[in-house]
Automatic annotation (TrEMBL):
It comes from the Bacteria. It comes from Rhizobium binae. It is a multi-pass membrane protein. Keywords: Cell membrane, Membrane, Transmembrane, Transmembrane helix, Transport. It is found in: Cell membrane. This is ABC-type dipeptide/oligopeptide/nickel transport system permease component. Residues 3-57 form the ABC transmembrane type-1 domain. Its main location: membrane. The chain crosses the membrane at residues 30-52.
Length: 57
């Protein structure tokens, strides 16, 4: 199971390695990054929806 794009290891393999090594600060950083990106994507979708559909305003 090797995940890489242009020979760069991905965040999934980093998560698995951190889980195996019990590296909790790395796991906290990964979960913070993923959570923040989900919140940012939802905010961007809400703003775009308000701009594209004037009935929502």
């Amino acid at each position: 199971m090797n995940e890489s794009v242009f020979a760069w290891p991905g965040i999934g393999s980093l998560t698995v390695e951190a889980l195996n090594a019990r590296d909790y600060p790395v796991l906290q950083g990964i979960f913070l990054l993923l959570g923040a990106s989900i919140v940012a994507a939802n905010l961007l979708a809400d703003v775009a929806y308000g701009i594209l559909d004037p009935r929502v305003r």
